[in-house]
Write a structure and sequence with these properties.
The chain has 202 residues and is an alpha/beta fold. It starts with a strand and ends with a strand.
Length: 202
């Protein structure tokens, strides 16, 4: 978190480090505000003196707030810090949910048994957290009756209303009509920016 300056005093100690940091000889300037490895304030001093303090302590001098005046540097084991950060990022990627867009296809005159089977498949996918694209495929004269496809999609949405909501209303594309159902948990809580969405057909 950035330090706030009030009458030449700082109200907070550096507790977080930005990713791209200047270390030791990479740091430029005449003086810095030094923070110890335990977060203690060591005061403002010339840059060369801060480097000497770091060297005596067997630690690195790391610039953590380059935009303040003077810049804030902290004593730390930079190699250990980078290792911990890399480990945290790796764990975060593992726990990241990948949202898949799966597709189930139906014909306008699908039988009752087949419809139920498709609904069960869609339910399982939604229960796993994936989105489901319901596609109605028209052939020949069926293309003149898009209302049959709309009713079928509405029926599927009604069948799965306890676990999903319509994210995208029925859309016609050539000989196909499709809509997208999203799990209620995904519908209510917006997906993270770093989540991925892939499409797979069934």
């Amino acid at each position: 978190m950035p330090l706030q300056r009030h009458d030449d005093s700082y109200t907070e100690v550096v507790t977080s480090i930005i990713k791209e940091l200047r270390v030791n000889q990479m740091i430029r300037g005449r003086e810095v505000r030094l923070v110890g490895d335990k977060g203690e304030q060591l005061g403002v001093m010339p840059l060369y003196q801060a480097r000497e303090v770091a060297e005596k302590a067997g630690l690195d001098l790391v610039e953590v707030a380059p935009t303040t005046v003077p810049p804030v540097c902290r004593l730390m084991d930079y190699g250990k810090y980078k290792y911990v950060q890399t480990k945290k990022e790796r764990e975060a990627r593992k726990s990241q949910k990948v949202v898949l867009l799966r597709e189930i296809r139906l014909r306008p005159k699908i039988g009752e048994h087949d419809f139920d089977a498709k609904a069960r498949t869609a339910y399982k996918l939604l229960d796993d957290g994936d989105k489901v694209k319901v596609t109605i495929m028209f052939r020949g004269r069926e293309n003149t009756h898009p209302e049959l496809g709309i009713k079928l999609i509405q029926r599927m949405a009604e069948t799965l209303k306890e676990i999903s909501a319509v994210e995208k209303e029925p859309t016609r594309e050539g000989a196909r009509l499709h809509a997208i159902l999203a799990p209620l948990a995904v519908k209510v809580a917006k997906p993270k920016e770093d989540s991925n969405e892939e499409t797979q057909e069934l």
